[in-house]
Amino acid sequence: MSGTVTTDLGLSCQPNRAGNALVFPYVLHNRGRAAVYVMDALPSVDPASRAARANDQAAVVMLGAKGDAVVGKFIAPLPPDRRVVLPVIPLARLLGPGDTLERRLEMPMPLAETSPYFADLPLRGYEMVEIAGVVFTIGFWPAGAEGLAAAAVDYAPGLFAVTARDPRRTAQSVSQRFPVKGLQLFKRNDNFPREGA
Asked: Which residues make Cβ contacts (< 8 Å) with residue 58, sequence separation at least 6?
């Protein structure tokens, strides 16, 4: 298939605080005529059993170029200081035309930059910065994009492993910005990538 795939994915989110967490209940609605694969979980390993599993609460958090915290489920920027043989690509859920998907993401406070490529740092490895807003972002792929393939994941029913020549370039995203006051982000002081933020 060649040409541009037209998509229209709507995002509705009403964030709030619950105890010691920022909570993002959100709804995605496919208003287009083509199906999309919505990034929904990260592949991970259960620490006790060492079995593969899908973590639907894993998210990427990074400081954006305009002083906002970018939070959500999307492809994390690659580390600049090492070669990554197998990039971490989120598992996706197929959303057909007219379909909706309801989800809830909880982020523990304090909000800190995080990525599947980086372990948490000791407290002294962060710098507290005040943020102007939170940009909640969900990534997706148009199902008909050229070179895109999806395979069902046996350990996570309903989820697909998406492959493409360049999954980052094929990916699109929807986002919603929420202005905030008095909210801080723990910014990493190491070689943490923030490209495209």
From this structure: 41, 42, 44, 73, 116
What pairs with residue 28 in β-bridges? 11, 101
CA–CA–CA angle 30, 36, 41 (5° rounding): 105
In this structure, which long-range contacts are made by residues 158-162, counting pairs with CB atoms below 8 Å and at least 24 apart in sequence?
A: 158/93, 159/40, 159/41, 159/54, 159/91, 159/92, 159/93, 160/37, 160/91, 160/92, 160/93, 160/94, 161/43, 161/89, 161/91, 161/92, 162/37, 162/89, 162/91, 162/92
List, for residues 76-132, the tens digit of each pLDDT value.
Answer: 999 988 888 889 999 999 999 999 999 999 999 999 999 999 999 999 999 999 999
pTM: 0.92
